[in-house]
Structures are given as C-alpha cells and as structure tokens.
Write a structure and sequence with these properties.
By secondary structure, the chain is of the alpha/beta class. The protein has 21 helices and 23 strands. Helices cover 32% and strands 15% of the residues. A 10-stranded mixed beta sheet has the order 10-11-12-13-14-15-16-17-19-18. The longest helix is centred in the C-terminal third of the chain and has 25 residues, at 673-697. The chain starts with 7 loop residues before the first strand and ends with a helix. It binds flavin mononucleotide and iron/sulfur cluster (SF4).
C-alpha cells in the first residue's frame, strides 16, 4: 500500500484521520515524501470541493503537528442504536465517563439514531453548527446479521457518499469520530464479528470524517462491558492527551479501497453476454432484485432468527416468507363467536369472520409515534432492499397462515359452527396491518390473485410513495392515511424517513384526484389528542386537493405506551367519542362552506369511528356507502372502465349517522355486553346533555 514509501520511524502514537488503515501503537510516519494518491476511478460526478478544517499546518507536506484545536473544547455527540439494550447501556456509560472529565467544556449529548434523529441528514450530511463546528461523533453500534435499523443507517452513509449532488466529503467539517462496535464473536466470528461497526467506520472515513481512534470491537458474550469500558477509558484519555496528531493535508480522504472500482471490476470483466443473463438471474434467484450493488449481501426483511421476527410472532403475527405478515384481528374472533363485526360491517358491509388482515411488506418508511413496533421494525425510504418473495408465495402463505389461526379457534367457547365453516372462504382482504403494502414490488399481481378468488381488496397506504401509488391497479377500496394536517404536525406524528415527506404526500393527493380517480378512494384520519386534532382548514385543503370518495375518521385507540418502543402516547391522547364527533362536524361545516359536497354518512360509536362521504353517495335521499361486492367482480371481469358509484349498496338504517343504534347492528348487540354497556352510557350522556341544555334555556 501507500505506506511502503515510509522513510522514518517514530515512536509517537500517530493516528491517521483519513484512512481505514488502523495504526498500531508504534507506527511509521511518512514525511517529506510525495504521497500516492489513490482516488478511485468512477463515473462522472459533480464534485464540490470542501475546504479541509484549518489546522496549524502551513506547509504542503505531511507533518506531525500539534492540533490547534483542543479536543476538550469540542461538542461530543454519542450516537447509538440498539435492539436489545446493550448499546444503549454502553453509550450511557460512555457519556457518563466523558462528562466526568474535568476539562471537557461541553456536556456530551446522547442521541438514539432511531428515536432522536428526525432526519439522518441533519447529522450525517449537514453537521450541527456549534460555533466553530467543533463536533466529535462517537458511534456505539451493535451488529446484526439480520435486517435491522443499522442497515438503514449504513445505507444512508453509503447513499450520501454516492450522491453526486452533494459535497463529496460532507463530514470533513467534523473534528473527528470514533466507532465502538458491539457483537458476539462466538456466533459471528471472523468477518461477521462487529461487521456493521467496521462498515460504519469505513463509510464515516469515506465521507471525510477524521478517525480519532481505532474502531472498538467488543464481544458482549465473552468480554462484555468491562472490555467496552476499556475502550471508553482509552478514548477518554486520548481526549485530554496533547500528544501530536499526524495530519496530512495533501493526503486524500479515505478512498483507498481499490476493490471498489479498480481491481478486477473493469468493465471488460463485468460485461456479460446478454444470452447469459437469463442463466445468471436464475442462478441468483431473486437476490439480485434489490439492486444492491456493493459487497453488502441482500438480507431478508424479517429473518427467522431476528429480534423483529420474535417480537412480531409474540404479538400474534404469522410471518409469511420473509417480508409478509398475517394476523387475525379481534373482530374476526368476535364475529366467529356470533358477536359484533368491526366498523367496516357498518360502513361497507364487511363481515369480520370473512376478512383476512395481511401485509406483503412489514417494512415501511415512517416511524409513527403510535407504532408499537418502533425500534425493531425494518425501514427503508423508498427502495426495496431485501430478498423478494414471489406473489404466489405471499398469497398462498397468507391464506394458509390465516386459516391455520382460524382452525386454532375451534375449541374456543361460543364459536358458531356456521360462521366457523364460512370463515374458511375468505371474502375480504384488508391490506393494512403494519408496514406499507405498496412498497412490495409485486403488489399488483398480489391484488390480482385476490380478485381472481373474488376476495375484495381494501388497501391502506401511507402516502409516501407516489410512484408506486400511481402504478397501482384497481382495488376495491383505496385508502390513504392522513395522519396530520400540515408539515410540522406530520413530521411529529409519522417521523418520516424521507425529508420530502410533505411533497410526497401532496403528490399522492394529486394522484388520487387524477390518475386514481377511477378508484373508490378513502382518506383515513386517526385522531390523536394533542397531535393532530387542530387545523381543520388544512384538512379541508387536503380534501379539496384529492377529492376522495369518502373520509373515515377514527379516534386513536390506546395500546399502552412505552418509552422503550418510542411510543409516547398516554390515555390523555385518546379522544372521547364526543370529541371525535365535534371534529367531524367542524370538518363537515368547513367543507360545506367551501362548496365541497361532503356530508356525514355513518357512524360506529363502539369503535369511535365516523364516515363522511361525497354526497353523490346519497342516492334518492339514502346513503349508499356499502359495497356491492359481486358487482365489483363482475365489472372487473368485464374489462370495462368503471368508477366508485358503479358498485354501491344502501347503508343500513342502524349505521346511518344520527340513528338510535349509532352503528350497533341490532342483531349483534344482544351478544355484545360491552357494546350494550357503551350504548347505555352514550344514551345516559345524551340524556344529561339534554337536561343541561333545557336548564340553560330556562
Ligand atoms: C439475530 C442476531 C444477529 C446477530 N448478528 C451479529 C453479527 O452478525 N455480528 C456480530 O458481531 N454480532 C451479532 N449479533 C450479536 C449482537 O450484535 C450483540 O448481542 C449486541 O450486543 C446486541 O446489541 P444491542 O443489545 O444494543 O442490540 C447478533 C445478535 C442477534 C440476536
Ligand atoms: S406506517 Fe404503520 S407500520 Fe409504519 S410506522 Fe406507521 S403505523 Fe407503524
């Protein structure tokens, strides 16, 4: 390598800031020697030069110098990511240790890459502006062979490096960085041990950051925290040590790994005869489809041995293949026992025991505050970066998983035989659950398979993937989640990974109004008090922009809060039904005042859910929010174009807004004690309100 040109030997502890080369405690320092430049050959790229940090080096030569910048004056950021907690513990120890350093001027900041950073770009493209930009980044990273949020972080570093629009060395403005890796050398020895910490160390170097200290590799199984503490101790010492650093301004930033583009990967070597392509694709299976071109392998989104798999199955999900999931919801169980169905029965005529809830992509591009999976859920901005299962496998696997769970219910007291038998003919599929169904590259084929079996499709998307949305073919009902009325609130609620999340949402709204106008479209609002229940005007703006067929408004339900999974909600954030009603009435008035033809159509008080619809669904004075499913399939199979109004059915009296039953199916209520109690409570509330009103009038 380039170090062969060394002429002098020095006992000084030299740290090369710029190379992945890790010096031993005694190393040779090149001086006054023309240095080899090993810039990799790459395709044309716009390179904006960034000025290296000014140090007290005046000559153009590599030198051993005392930095004018005192490390103790820096602002230290400790970043960590964790799935089972050890990296968080170690990061906290690191913070405490550094805090106790007498001369350290600023208190080190501890930040979770997953919970505390809204946007990785704010720290790993831009850097915080602390006066003279004297920032030091310390990264405490575990390694996971299975897919985890660390993959997403590493991908961000890689993408930044490969993005020709941005400064090539954006992290050069940092004073320095160091990575402490945690892993398990027994199960993952050799290259795999702490491999993600090593990758992070490498990418940080490539992005222009200066390595202050060699990457730590700690086996948490054998060496545990004492070994981590040793690294911390040594690093702390380095901070207060005024030993000179070897700094070479002529040397290029860490770009020396020739394997990327020089060795053996010449075009001539990689060109493949078109005739051979089929063979190669077949041999590589679906692995190549993720478009992952570097040496990182394509992972499974939810591998069997991953913490995500464990947490999902614990919650009752059946994982299908490696990226899909299916789960029986409580309404399916309730309906099997002859009790009530969910609000979709009241609004659209869906019987819960005939409904399968599934998703072909457990990953998504948000980190919503109300998502319990937060912390372990696989994430990606917009590209599919995992192994890909064919649609047949997802379809058959989902049905098999669903039926297996139904079968397991056979011993549950109160199961009704006729419904139990019917349940083995799924009629509806809710593509929602968790994750983002339109992320799945074969979503259209998958939906096609449902329709072929006359299974209706309700697809919910998070409005972050306009390209996929535009390409989506006919579904029975197309939902878009509208989690907040404006940019600031949406960022707070969904914590999207894409920085252009608002623009993405806006394009999705435009797509609903134009390309997807033929679909039966629904806005889904989940109301969370203190997060998204204000700014009615902006919600109305969005309705005006997308012109959805219907608007479904649901009060958030409480699934328990936990700071551990990043879910900050408490009971205080759960709106009462009355508050939801008030919100809906206000929205309805706002829309009417703008001449938009929407009105409140139906309600299901039990689930705190209200449906607004375009008044075109009110035919001859009667609401028609229900769906004529056989008609839908007939139209679909006719091959003709058709729209939302072509397959409607009348809404039953008991579900219509303002009816006495408030969405309680009279046939079900007698079985449903909880529903009965709630109904009585609502009646009592209404009574007391009337009395108060009367008193006011006297
Ligand atoms: C599914 C799984 C995969 C893992 N893969 C690796 C690996 O590839 N390399 C490694 O060094 N350690 C691996 N480990 C060990 C973890 O990195 C180690 O337990 C670490 O301390 C976990 O940190 P955390 O508690 O902050 O999540 C793996 C652990 C699990 C459970
Ligand atoms: S979109 Fe769904 S899966 Fe994704 S974070 Fe939000 S709630 Fe969770």
């Amino acid at each position: 390598g380039r170090w062969s040109l060394v002429v002098a030997e020095s006992p000084i502890y030299a740290v090369d800031f710029t190379s992945s080369f890790t010096p031993s405690t005694t190393t040779q320092i090149p001086r006054s020697v023309p240095l080899l430049r090993s810039r990799a050959k790459r395709s044309p790229r716009v390179i904006k030069a960034s000025k290296p940090i000014q140090l007290s080096v005046t000559s153009n030569e590599a030198s051993l110098t005392k930095s004018t910048i005192n490390l103790l004056e820096s602002q230290i950021y400790i970043f960590y990511t964790t799935l089972t907690g050890s990296s968080h513990r170690v990061a906290k120890t690191l913070q405490e240790k550094l805090e106790n350093l007498e001369d350290l001027k600023n208190k080190p900041k501890l930040l979770s890459l997953d919970d505390d950073l809204d946007d990785l770009e704010e720290y790993f493209l831009k850097t915080p502006n602390n006066g003279n930009n004297k920032n030091i980044y310390l990264l405490v990273l575990p390694s996971y062979e299975t897919d985890s949020p660390i993959d997403y972080f590493l991908e961000h570093l890689k993408d930044t490096y490969q993005d020709f629009r941005v400064d090539k060395y954006p992290l050069r403005s940092l004073l320095g960085f160091a990575v402490l890796g945690l892993g398990d050398s027994e199960s993952w020895n050799g290259e795999k041990f702490c491999y993600q910490a090593k990758l992070a160390d490498r990418w940080m170097g490539k992005l222009g950051a200066r390595r202050l200290f060699p990457v730590g590799e700690v086996c948490m199984k054998y060496e545990g925290e004492p070994k981590a503490n040793e690294w911390i101790q040594n690093f702390a010492q380095l901070l207060s040590d005024d030993e000179p650093f070897y700094i070479d301004e002529n040397d290029d930033v860490d770009d020396s790994d020739k394997e990327d583009s020089e060795e053996g990967t010449d075009d001539a070597d990689t060109l493949v005869d078109v005739e051979d392509m089929g063979d190669i694709i077949r041999k590589s299976g679906t692995r190549g489809l993720a478009g992952n071109s570097t040496n990182e392998e394509v992972k499974q989104m939810v591998a069997k041995d991953s913490p995500t798999y464990k947490s999902l199955t614990k919650q009752g999900y059946t994982i299908v293949g490696s990226h899909s999931g299916v789960k029986i919801c409580r309404w399916t169980k309730s309906a099997l026992r002859g009790r009530g169905s969910c609000y979709k029965f009241a609004f659209y005529g869906i019987k819960s025991h005939l409904c399968m809830e599934t998703t072909p992509s457990l990953a998504c591009s948000n980190k919503c505050v109300f998502c319990w999976r937060h912390g372990t859920n696989p994430v990606a901005k917009s590209n599919w970066r995992w192994e890909l299962d064919p649609p047949e496998k997802v379809f058959e696997g989902a049905l098999a998983g669903h039926y297996q769970k139904i079968k397991q219910m056979r011993g549950v007291p109160g199961i009704q035989m006729d419904r139990f038998q019917e349940a083995f003919q799924v009629r509806h599929c809710a593509l929602s659950l968790v994750g983002e169904p339109i992320f799945y590259p074969h979503i259209n084929e998958f939906v096609g398979m449902l329709h072929e079996k006359h299974i209706s499709s309700f697809l919910v998307c998070n409005a972050q993937h306009p390209d996929n949305l535009a390409k989506l073919q006919k579904v029975t009902q197309l939902y878009v989640s509208i989690d907040a009325p404006n940019r600031q609130d949406l960022k707070k609620v969904d914590r999207p990974l894409n920085s252009d999340f608002w623009e993405r949402l806006m394009s999705c709204l435009d797509i609903l109004r134009t390309i997807q106008k033929h679909q039966r479209t629904v806005f889904r609002l989940t109301l969370v008090k203190g997060f998204n229940m204000g700014d009615i005007e902006s919600y109305a703006d969005m309705v005006a922009r997308a012109l959805p067929s219907q608007i479904e408004i649901k009060g958030a339900t409480f699934c328990g809060s936990s700071s551990a999974n990043g879910n900050p909600l408490t009971m205080q954030n759960i709106p009462f039904y009355e508050e939801c009603k008030e919100f809906v009435v206000n929205l309805s008035n706002e829309l009417k005042s703008r001449g938009l033809n929407y009105d409140i159509a139906a309600e299901h008080a039990h689930s705190c859910c209200i449906l607004m619809a375009d008044t075109k669904f009110k035919i001859n004075g009667k609401w028609h929010t229900h769906i004529d499913y056989p008609k839908f399939f007939e139209l679909l199979e006719s091959g003709k174009e058709f729209v939302d109004l072509d397959y409607v059915k009348e809404t039953p009296e008991w579900a219509v807004w303002g009816s006495d039953e408030a969405g309680f199916n009279p046939e079900d209520t007698k079985f449903d004690r909880k529903a009965e109690k709630l109904k009585n409570k609502l009646a009592r509330e209404e009574q007391s309100r009337q009395i108060i009103e009367q008193q006011k009038n006297f």
